[in-house]
Automatic annotation (TrEMBL):
Pfam families: SASA. It comes from Rufibacter glacialis. InterPro entries: SASA, SGNH_hydro_sf, SIAE. It comes from the Bacteria. GO terms for molecular function: sialate O-acetylesterase activity. This is Sialate O-acetylesterase. GO terms for biological process: carbohydrate metabolic process. Keywords: Hydrolase, Signal. Residues 1-24 form the signal peptide. Residues 108-350 form the Sialate O-acetylesterase domain.
Length: 469
């Protein structure tokens, strides 16, 4: 092109108000075709444009345009009020250019995160994978897979795109996320959007913000002790910056968390880590959304008490409001850190959401959770939450109970169901003071409530480890 022609082209663009592609209004990857927006909520649509550019965003469910201008940082955002109408809808974003997002649904949006058991897909091997894959045609379920990335500071965008649930897309998406979403979709008859941001082998520290880690000396010290591994990041906030921060403030109904195996070396710290992560995310989103997590399944970990102490840390996290825990020791595999029964994991997490988030109280949400004990002579009586309809054993006798006296020496114990309580004793312990259930890495207790959900491992004492185990 001759110089005079180029000058004429540039002059024409200036006179007509045209803009270069670098100045065109644009959107983050999480806002795109086929997305699900949270229904009946105020949702944020945001992006970038030329400073001062007027942006108009319109959702077809109400056709109410919302206007704003790109700020001095070339950023803009608007808030839209969504409805209950599932769609499909369009979202039109108009600035110097116009973007029309097609096939947008209004429904329930959940973030799925954690490490490999959340990341695990049908293609990696799950029970009945072929059958589940063939059946996975659900046009109203949508997936967004966040690509693995790390960053030293919070990023503006992620790698990924919304796709419709088909046998081909389901095959490579989080199996736990899919089974959760399918259950929610079928029970509520609404669209479901699932965002999977997980990374196998990652400790919880990488999923918290730098500010959250720095605000706690305990967490900061634990994070500083992390040693490099070959399969993923271990430095604080590395995954948060690249794989969580760019999703904020995309409106969520809640988050699912399946992680903990990479923190079994410091379970006492995890008792502070997981609540801190929940608060960190809720603060960032400015939304006290539901947060449901999976308790780690039994496995042959290195230390003698790594699993039960990490499981206990997860149990203690139930003190945080609007949380819930799916117990998995009965559907795990002590010889495989990646149990292949992902269907029941997803369904148990969905049970929590249906009961607690969506008010379907008839749906069982939890197995028995230890509440308190009372000494009765040479026996101890145990009381539980989530046992209103009574307790039961899957098998002739209850297993994996221990009892101890003041010498803190635990011995195998007999446990007997008495209505909604348990009575625990052992002949050799005349003056019992403490009971434990499932207190080993590979324990698979068989205590359930009448709803058929298993009890979490627990202990009535708070004694420290012996012999530094």
């Amino acid at each position: 092109m001759k110089l005079t022609s180029l000058r004429k082209l540039l002059l024409g663009m200036l006179l007509t108000g045209a803009t270069t592609s670098a100045e065109a209004v644009s959107l983050p990857a999480i806002i795109g075709h086929h997305m699900v927006l949270q229904r009946n909520a105020e949702v944020t649509i945001w992006g970038w444009g030329k400073t001062g550019e007027e942006i108009t965003v319109t959702g077809s469910w109400d056709s109410q345009p919302v206007k704003t201008k790109a700020n001095t940082q070339a950023k803009w955002s608007v808030t839209l009020q969504t409805s209950a109408a599932p769609g499909p809808h369009t979202v039109t974003v108009q600035g110097y250019n116009t973007l029309v997002l097609e096939d947008v649904l209004l429904g329930e949006v959940w973030l799925c995160s954690g490490q490999s058991n959340m990341e695990w897909s049908a293609s990696m091997g799950i029970d009945n994978a072929d059958q589940h894959t063939k059946e996975a045609t659900y046009p109203s379920i949508r997936f967004f897979q966040v690509g693995h990335r790390t960053a030293d500071a919070p990023q503006l965008d992620v790698q990924g795109q919304w796709v419709v649930c088909t046998p081909e897309t389901m095959k490579y998406f989080s199996a736990v996320g899919y089974f959760f979403g399918r259950e929610i979709h079928q029970k509520l008859n609404v669209p479901v959007g699932l965002i999977n941001s997980s990374w196998g082998g990652t400790p919880a520290e990488v999923w918290l913000s730098s500010e959250a880690i720095a605000s706690s000396p305990v967490l900061a010290e634990a994070a500083a002790k992390r040693k490099e591994v070959e399969w993923g990041p271990v430095q604080p906030a590395k995954a948060y910056n690249a794989m969580i921060a760019p999703l904020i403030p995309f409106r969520l109904a809640g988050a699912l968390w399946y992680q903990g195996e990479s923190n079994t070396d410091a379970p006492e710290v995890y008792a502070q880590m997981l609540p801190a992560l929940i608060q960190d995310w809720r603060t960032a989103w400015k939304n006290e959304f539901s947060f449901y997590f999976a308790q780690i399944a039994p496995y042959t970990y290195g230390g003698a008490e790594e699993w039960p102490r990490l499981a206990e840390a997860q149990l203690k996290t139930l003190r945080v409001p609007n949380t819930g825990m799916a117990v998995l020791h009965d559907i795990g595999n002590v010889n495989d850190i990646h149990p292949r029964n992902k269907l029941d994991v997803g369904k148990r997490l969905a049970g929590l959401a249906l009961n607690k988030t969506y008010g379907q109280k008839e749906v069982p949400a939890s197995g028995p959770i230890y509440r308190e004990m009372k000494k009765e002579g040479n026996k101890i009586r145990l009381y539980f939450d989530h046992a209103d309809q009574g307790l039961m054993a899957k098998g002739k006798e209850l297993t994996h109970f221990e009892i101890a006296g003041e010498d803190q020496r635990f011995v195998p114990a007999q446990a007997r169901i008495d209505g909604k309580t348990l009575v625990v004793s052992a002949k050799e312990v005349k003056n019992p003071v403490a009971v434990r259930m499932g207190w080993s890495n590979t324990a698979t207790p068989n205590l359930y409530n009448k709803a058929g959900l298993p009890a979490s491992t627990f202990r009535t004492d708070n004694w420290p480890r012996k012999n530094n185990l």
